[in-house]
Design brief:
The structure is a homodimer. The first copy, chain A, is built from 14 helices and 6 strands. By secondary structure, chain A is α/β, with parallel strands linked by helices. The first copy, chain A, has a 6-stranded parallel sheet, sandwiched between helices. In chain A, helix 1 packs antiparallel against helix 2, helix 6 crosses helix 8 and helix 10 crosses helix 11. The longest helix of chain A has 19 residues. The termini of chain A are far apart.
Chain lengths: 351, 351
Amino acid sequence: MLPDWINSECPAPSEAHRKAALARQAQLTKPLGALGRLEEVAVELAALQAVDRPGADRAPVVLFAGDHGIAAQGVSAYPPEVTVQMLHNFAGGGAAIAVLARSLGCPLEVVDVGTLADEPMRGIVVDKPRRGTRDFSVEPALTPEEVAFACEAGRRAVARQSGHSPDLVIFGEMGIGNTTSAAAIAAALLPCAPAQIVGSGTGLDADGRARKARVIGDALARHGVNTDAAVADVLAAVGGLEIIAMAGAIIAAAQRRWPVLVDGFIVSVAALVAVRLNPSCRPWLLFSHRSAERGHALVLEALGARALIDLDLRLGEASGAATALPIIRLACALHNGMATFAEAAVSGREA
Amino acid sequence: MLPDWINSECPAPSEAHRKAALARQAQLTKPLGALGRLEEVAVELAALQAVDRPGADRAPVVLFAGDHGIAAQGVSAYPPEVTVQMLHNFAGGGAAIAVLARSLGCPLEVVDVGTLADEPMRGIVVDKPRRGTRDFSVEPALTPEEVAFACEAGRRAVARQSGHSPDLVIFGEMGIGNTTSAAAIAAALLPCAPAQIVGSGTGLDADGRARKARVIGDALARHGVNTDAAVADVLAAVGGLEIIAMAGAIIAAAQRRWPVLVDGFIVSVAALVAVRLNPSCRPWLLFSHRSAERGHALVLEALGARALIDLDLRLGEASGAATALPIIRLACALHNGMATFAEAAVSGREA
């Protein structure tokens, strides 16, 4: 039901390059460990890229947008038409991720994998099996074929980035209602009670959150996917096209040896899906930020992940990953550009 | 005893520009608050710079270096000659801050305010009252005149940056033994027990930390500066020339309406000194990172400060401030570059 390539083993990071990078860090003119997580990130990236001098200059951003039938159930503070309006805003350069990508020199591709848009839009790639998902409070969100299509759309998006020769890739999402789909997937996969994972999304109050949790709990029960369900069944029942596309994109990127800088809650749920489908993609994931969205901490914990920054962000759109990117670039610059004790004729620790 | 200008009132941030910046944030195409601390930083900077469109492009870094007589007491994992060796490494571009400043396009000035160096060095400004401080375990570290000189050296360094028209300034430090001086100052000013504030510095073990705390406790008792002492007396007793220079620089920068992006433990202690000497400089301080050095959390708390990043850094050299700078730049880019709901024709929240 899911495409075969989903199961293909991802390559392993280079342990030889990890060792060499660790040895270099011990020689740079600073107390060992004094650059903390900047050292760790540089070493990790050296292992993933299998190079002596890691880099993060070429970091294309792919944003996947989709709409959600569940939005009809009042689970978002914004109306569904905002998704398509935001597509124009991405293409026009006024959205947060457009500003960030421009500032950072990152190419930005926006893929409509399932919004309600009828017409093609300038600057937006359209690659969708249908307009929006079905309302999962009344029927399964997607057919198995639509799930498979979204995986393929993710892989096609990755293939289109190869011209950029990425040092790493960033995936992001936009879609009114998609924290509800993401929370439903996470509640099924972790598993945990919906109320534990449901957050405010774009700005729900306590009543709204309670309704959202109830909608999710009822749907998981109705579709019979709240315990031990196959991942593909969960995705068909409550999935979102942009979330599934990102899961496919993550696996496809890892299969190409491209590190993936994971954004916030929704991308982390896509990462959880990817790791459950193909655990060999896990080493290729770097985690950028800890979102203010409630469920993110649980998903990060399930993935054994530690985020770099924690700035109370809860926008999505890959904005957290983009914000963390300069830190990774500086980690590389330090690893590659600092002098060693010998080069600088600086004394080491006293015996 | 301290120069008179230390007491001159710093200007207040512009509340009108803060209000305008808050109003703009509410109009940008994102749920209000969804960019978390990036919104706060942009608003804060707009108020400090008294502009509609804040910026952080022009961010000169001034590094103050000094040596410490207390290093003779085995309080550092590195020998004192490392301070002067590192001056060469700063000038030669191989030190962490040199790499970071280059990557970020920040001008870097290194000021020897009191190292053991005998000779001037290419690329280093020399502005010092003496070579190193005295060993404060046996005598006061500095005379009142030397303390005043270091304050003036800080102010002179600030004046030299005016050609850069700074959006903000970053101060940093280097000096073997200076976490001991900083911890002693903090223990006296907060006040707290030396053992609460003493950390590993460049890499002491538990025995080393205990020795360091004992050295500090004995010195504060010997010099009678452990309760209610005047700040200037604390500085003369256990101060470091680079720490005092930074305190002077912070006040001088705030008096010019330049926001100061504060680095880690030692710069934060300098900030604490500055705020105790002249509380009107406090609004001009932005806090970049939470250091792995033990006492930093206490000093941040005393200053009512919340750092932006927490990456287990403990190098000094302004490396934490430099690492946080791109986040501030992105916060400005978002504030200045995002479209409003009206401009992008995006619907707001449902009523």
